[in-house]
Amino acid sequence: MEDRERLNQLVNELNMYQGQADVFNQQMETIKANLADLTIAQETLQSIKDKKDAETLVPIGAGSFIITEIKNTDEVIVGLGAGAAVKKKIADAEENIQEQKKDLEAVSNKIAEQLNQITEFIVTKTPEAEALIQKLEGTENQIQ
User: Fold this and answer.
1) pTM above 0.70, yes or no
2) Residues 74 and 49: beta-carbon distance below 8 Å
3) Residue 86 contacts by C-beta under 8 Å, 6 or more apart in sequence?
4) CATH code assigned at 62
5) What whole-number distance in Å separates Cα of residue 13 and Cα of residue 11?
6) Which domain holds residue 97?
7) Number of structural domains the chain divides into
């Protein structure tokens, strides 16, 4: 294969893999945000469980909150997605949150593995592309 063709192929591959790496990094950020949200929910449930006359802050927008009393510390409403929700016992909700966290962590690990493979490819192939660039620039300078 001619050097210029090989360089074009490498550049295309590197660009494609860099694009995939960017997508994986965005997915990892989304997963981290979801894990943080689940952790906050989990901590909140643990802090109100089995308490009577518990108080909490309820966001009302624009960084403002109202202090309110929680009348039922035995059950919570859990979102199922697509606008659906169900009432669950706190222990069941905590279990559900823990399962969601495990699932997200598994996805995160898979993405991290794929990201490592992409990074290895980029690190391995970049010097080859740079060497071809140097070679082609040297050839062009000799022609001039």
Assistant:
1) yes
2) no
3) 77, 78, 80
4) 1.10.287.370
5) 5
6) 3-143
7) 1
Q: What is the pLDDT of residues 24-70, one digit of tens each?
A: 999 999 999 999 999 999 998 988 887 887 888 889 999 999 999 88
> What is the structure's pLDDT at 27?
97
User: Which residues neighbour 1 within 8 Å (Cβ) at sequence distance 6 or greater?
Assistant: 9
